[in-house]
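Bumping with the actual sequence this time:
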Amino acid sequence: MNKADLVAEVAKDSEISKESAEKAVDATFKTIEMALKNGDTVRIVGFGNFQVADRKASTGRNPRTGETVQIPASRVPKFRAGKALKEACNS
């Protein structure tokens, strides 16, 4: 499922226009993005948690040349599925 499919499903299930559904989906994604950017955790009960994890700097290797490369530290988004979502996937 891609974003267009998601918007179509939200519009159908909510009985709203696709334009309104797209605004709602975009606003949801933007809100989650801003919360993560500010270092907050987004908890959606029954669905899961979005949070930011710090990844340490490390040394990697270029597979083409074998040359050692420094990989800088970074912050990465992580998602942990909630119990209800896990159960829904296994039923």
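The tokens above came from a reply further down the thread. The chain has two domains: 1-40, 41-91.
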